[in-house]
């Protein structure tokens, strides 16, 4: 059994556990699972200690490797917020269980969390949103039980920004085939392994056809390969409206990074807020489990914080390594503790006398072995993250060069700019097709009352096909010609893939 499971979960360097379902005794657990433990900042030490105690009581087969990150690292002058020893330990174990980390003070605003996500390509952020007993919320009783799976690396959060002119800022929204395909495949793999039956993809594909639309297109291809799980698409604003009106109808939602950030917190608010929300950040080889809340400096060190989110993150970690029985035992003990309402922390105690973080953890430990009717019933099977690989077959086969978009700084009027540019490129194999400003076409001849800024988008069409070297030379000649008229900031190559234009049109074009 053990060998079979090791092979099945070869994504992780250490995978050792198999046990029986709820109320059964752990069986065939012989080898220890190493996990990097980062207590974190603010309330981190309180909630991680509590969650670790609960995990150890249900599953005494983890060897915790205490490491640091966050405030202590920044204070020691480590700008990334994560010491090399911590990175090495994570690389070795492939598993991290952590508390919230403080962000560096100062204009740099470095986040150790983001360092960890990027260093280990933790591309999938998983946020279960599940109604908990005794937690007051507007939606209590609806039986909300959904999971938000968010692409965690790309999109506007790649963090590539420029001031294009002194007056215009730009952020690059990067959406790759690999990123979209991996997160889509992960969503279906997660659905299979967590007994889920439907995946909804939420994008703004109607407006951002080449980024959000690309994500949707890739999702739909992956969905077609997974007919056992239902799949649909919602425009993201419609998705949030439906989430607020009928959240119980959702199962798994997969989406791009920024959409997911917003939807994740909105959905957490439906069941009591981010203070109760667990999360996981999953990559091919490393998986990191943490609460969605921050360091809560207002209650740090007071032993009053609610460790529920982190205990549930522990449940996610145990399921990730295949310890389904232990995960269920903790979940049932936690739900039992919450529904008894005798031991609740201050944030949810309302009419009851609150207990401390550590007393709440003790109550959960005492309840291990009890079952709760509140726990949603599901079948769990191992998830094989190493099998989630993009397929080359989805790539287009042909490409053509259509021209170039050049963004220029210009303080005059559009007609003068157009005349000067046309004169400058007269000897070149390009023609000026349009000029737009903030996405609105203003040349040739569109009547518009749009206000303009000093950042102009000029589209030059190329007069025919050529080899790549000559195309690049032509673009350089085009830029040289434009330099005689105004200052250019950036250039985009216009291409068609499989005869479809791979660039957007301006409003009015
Ligand atoms: P950070 O800057 O690290 O994100 P923050 O205070 O801005 O910290 P959170 O840490 O998420 O954001 O806290 C927001 C509010 O929720 C605070 O009032 C905090 O006390 C409360 N809170 C967050 N987590 C918990 C928890 N686990 N138990 C009780 N209250 C919590």
Estimated helix fraction: 25-40%
The share of residues in extended strands comes to 15-25%
Radius of gyration: 26 Å
Look at the structure and give the mean pLDDT.
90
Which ligands are bound? adenosine-5'-triphosphate
Kindly, what is the distance between the CA atoms of the first and last residues, rounded to a whole number of angstroms? 63 Å
The global form is elongated
Number of helices: 15
CATH topology grouping of the domain at 148-258: Rossmann fold
Secondary-structure content class: alpha/beta
Characterize the structure shown:
This protein is α/β, with parallel strands linked by helices. Among the domains are: 148-258, 3-Layer(aba) Sandwich (Rossmann fold); 399-501, Alpha-Beta Plaits (2-Layer Sandwich). 33% of the residues lie in helices and 21% in strands. It is built from 15 helices and 18 strands. The chain has helices spanning 2-8, 44-58, 71-75, 84-93, 112-119, 177-193, 212-224, 236-245, 257-270, 308-320, 324-340, 346-349, 357-366, 414-424, 468-483; strands at 33-38, 62-67, 95-98, 124-130, 145-151, 161-165, 168-171, 198-203, 230-235, 252-255, 278-282, 287-291, 399-409, 430-437, 440-443, 455-462, 487-497, 500-501. A ten-stranded mixed sheet has the order 2-1-3-12-11-4-5-10-8-9, with helices on both faces. A six-stranded antiparallel sheet has the order 15-14-16-13-17-18, covered by helices on one side. A hairpin with a 4-residue loop joins strand 11 and strand 12. It is elongated and about 85 Å long. 45% of the residues are buried. Residues 43, 47, 100, 274-275, 293-299, 305-306, 309, 347 line the site of adenosine-5'-triphosphate (ATP).
């Amino acid at each position: 059994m053990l060998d079979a499971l090791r092979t099945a979960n070869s994504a992780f360097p250490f995978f050792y556990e198999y046990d029986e379902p709820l109320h059964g005794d752990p069986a065939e657990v012989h080898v220890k699972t190493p996990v990097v433990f980062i207590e974190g900042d603010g309330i981190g030490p309180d909630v991680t200690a509590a969650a670790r105690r609960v995990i150890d009581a249900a599953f005494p087969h983890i060897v915790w490797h205490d490491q640091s990150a966050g405030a202590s690292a920044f204070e020691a002058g480590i700008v990334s917020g994560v010491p090399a020893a911590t990175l090495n330990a994570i690389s070795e174990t492939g598993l991290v269980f952590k508390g919230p980390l403080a962000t560096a003070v100062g204009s740099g605003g470095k986040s150790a969390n983001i360092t960890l996500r990027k260093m280990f390509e933790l591309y999938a952020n998983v946020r279960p949103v599940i109604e908990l007993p005794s937690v007051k919320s507007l939606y209590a009783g609806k039986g909300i039980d959904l999971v938000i799976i968010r692409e965690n690396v790309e999109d506007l959060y790649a963090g590539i920004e420029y001031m294009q002119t002194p007056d215009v800022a730009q952020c690059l929204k990067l959406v790759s085939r690999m990123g979209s395909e991996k997160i889509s495949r992960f969503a279906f793999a997660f659905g299979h392994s967590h007994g889920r039956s439907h995946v909804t993809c939420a994008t703004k594909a109607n407006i951002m056809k080449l980024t959000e639309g690309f994500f949707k297109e890739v999702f739909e291809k992956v969905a077609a390969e997974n007919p056992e799980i239902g799949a649909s698409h919602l425009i993201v604003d419609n998705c949030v409206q439906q989430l607020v009106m009928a959240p119980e109808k959702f199962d798994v939602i997969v989406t791009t990074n920024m959409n997911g950030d917003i939807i994740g917190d909105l959905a957490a608010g439906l069941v009591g807020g981010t203070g109760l929300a667990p999360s996981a950040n999953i990559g091919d080889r490393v998986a990191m489990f943490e609460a969605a809340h921050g360091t809560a400096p207002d209650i740090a060190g007071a032993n009053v914080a609610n460790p529920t989110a982190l205990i549930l993150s522990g449940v996610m970690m145990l399921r990730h390594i295949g310890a389904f029985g232990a995960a269920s035992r903790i979940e049932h003990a936690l739900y039992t503790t919450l529904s008894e309402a005798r031991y609740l922390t201050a944030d949810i105690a309302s009419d009851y006398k609150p207990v401390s973080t550590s007393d709440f953890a003790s109550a959960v430990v005492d309840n291990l072995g009890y079952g709760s009717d509140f726990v949603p019933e599901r079948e769990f099977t191992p998830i094989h993250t190493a099998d989630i690989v993009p397929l080359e077959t989805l790539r287009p086969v042909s490409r053509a060069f259509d021209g170039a978009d050049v963004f220029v700084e210009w303080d005059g009027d559009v007609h003068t700019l157009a005349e000067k540019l046309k004169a400058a490129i007269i000897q070149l194999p390009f023609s000026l097709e349009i000029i737009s400003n903030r996405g609105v076409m203003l040349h040739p001849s569109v009547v518009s009352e749009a206000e303009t800024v000093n950042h102009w988008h000029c589209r030059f069409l190329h007069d025919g096909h050529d080899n790549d070297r000559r195309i690049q030379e032509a673009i350089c000649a085009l830029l040289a010609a434009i330099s005689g008229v105004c200052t250019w900031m950036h250039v985009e190559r216009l291409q068609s893939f499989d005869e479809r234009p791979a660039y957007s049109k301006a409003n009015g074009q």
